[in-house]
Amino acid sequence: MRSSRPGERNPTKTTGTPADASAERRPSRAFVVPAGEDAVVSRDRLGLEPVVYATFDGGVAVGKTYGDLFGSGRIPKRWRKDAMIDFLAAGIAVFPDGATFFEGVYEVPPGHDLRITSGRWSVAARDLLPDATEELGEEALPRLRERIADAVEGLGEDAALCLSGGIDSSSVAAAMARRKRPRCFVYGAPGTEDRELAMETAESLGLRPVLPEFAETADLDELRRMLRVLEIPTHIPGAPLPQLRLMETMARSGVRTVVSGQGGDELFCGYPWHFPPAMEKLRARDPETAARLEALHEASPPFPVLDLRIARRCFTRTASWVAFSDGGACDVLGLTREHVTARDGVRFFAADTGDWDGLRRQGLTVRSLRYLLHYDRRLAAHFGLRGSAPLLDAGVVDLVSRFQLDFLYGGGMLKYPLRLLFPEVPERVRFQTRKMGFWHSGPSLPDLRPEVRRLIGQTPLGEFVARPEAVDRMNAGALWRFFVAGTLLEADC
């Protein structure tokens, strides 16, 4: 977050009046622009640093967290009903026009400026993501290595890496290992493939691995604690509990900067639903290459259990997203899928986007990366840590945006450039395609159905429920969303 008076160049600190003492028993880190004063607050183009704001009678309060605003004593905390319905029905976590889960509280979108003039505010685009130009191929790999190396150059001895065994964190590990011998913390149960791959990478690169042991099952108290730290709901069941556990361990071990491979899937368009529209775009000008890559991809699909046609529909069509996410939630809410599909928040988050360019931009600015970064930053801050995501460095992003489609998906593989980038990473890690992501290695969840029934009966969650008997028919994903919403609502009762 960056704030300045109009006309001020290269601002480095926020301006405004310090807010009052926090209701959360800590000084509020919000700052206030009084009515009659002007200011500009900028957010980076990927939203690496959050910026939220709200108006009150005396001006505009701005902070990095919702707690900053509510702790100022000027902004009341009221959950926004429409946002909660969107979340319960379809797992929506990002909303149009900067709206948030809270009444009267807004988020500055990535790459935008918040302009405050005489107590009034406006939001305008400033520095948006570069368009994909498709001009570079394998010859750009040395430059990419250099860019990532530059991104890790400033990391001190108190930095450590979250290593999952996937190509994203392994690539960052290789870049760090070229300059120093960093610590890495591995999350994964003994005997799992992810843990084996992470340890193989650590040994190959000469890293110092730490393998903390965690309970295989999460309990309700642990989940409640995680949700309080996150501030807002998360629709991914159990996520990001692995990060919470790991960051707590890292903080106790003297780590001050947590390094991750966050953003690799979004930057390199490495989700399975990216591949079909990418090949459609490529086929329009080079049908032979597209056919060859499709044949190679089909011979070794990244997720054999996931039908790519279903994946594409779910992530490119609003109605399919709702059908995929529902899990019985609509029935409990007394809403039809058609009604949910037509809601503004759902249409924004799960927009009909069938082309590759649209999916790329949406993933980086609206969908996964936007809320994943929020969760990472909240967890890190809770333990007094800084977060670092070298793959999202500005120079890295600018370079990758210029990669050709046939290079991004070379050999029919997702994230192909990363697989060639650091040959010192074990081949089994570089070319394995079944890694499901860091959060999927988390602990199993307890049976949430009894707790959801309790929350419906004893908390404001019940105000959203039309058919409580239908709870028995909800799947695990829908149960998780109701548990999350009810827990957060109960905490504010």
Textual characterization of the structure:
There is one protein chain. The chain is α/β, with parallel strands linked by helices and 493 residues long. The protein is 42% helix and 11% strand. The chain contains 23 helices and 14 strands. A five-stranded antiparallel sheet has the order 2-3-6-5-7. Strands 12-11-10-13-14 form a five-stranded parallel sheet, with helices on both faces. Strands 1-4-8-9 form a four-stranded antiparallel sheet, with no helix packed on it. Strand 8 and strand 9 (120-125) form a beta hairpin. Helix 3 (141-153) packs antiparallel against helix 18, helix 9 runs antiparallel to helix 10 and helix 11 crosses helix 12 (318-326).
CATH topology of the domain at 138-268 and 353-441: Rossmann fold
- Portion of residues in beta strands equals 5-15%
Number of β-strand runs: 14
Strand order across the largest sheet: 2-3-6-5-7
General shape: globular
- Low-pLDDT parts are 4-26
CATH class of the domain at 138-268 and 353-441: Alpha Beta
Q: Measured on Cα atoms, how large is the radius of gyration?
A: 23 Å
Mean pLDDT: 88
CATH level-two architecture of the domain at 138-268 and 353-441? 3-Layer(aba) Sandwich
SS-derived structural category: alpha/beta
- The fourth-level CATH homologous superfamily of the domain at 138-268 and 353-441 is HUPs
Short description:
The protein has 493 residues and is an alpha/beta fold. Among the domains are: 124 residues, no CATH class; 220 residues, HUPs (Rossmann fold).
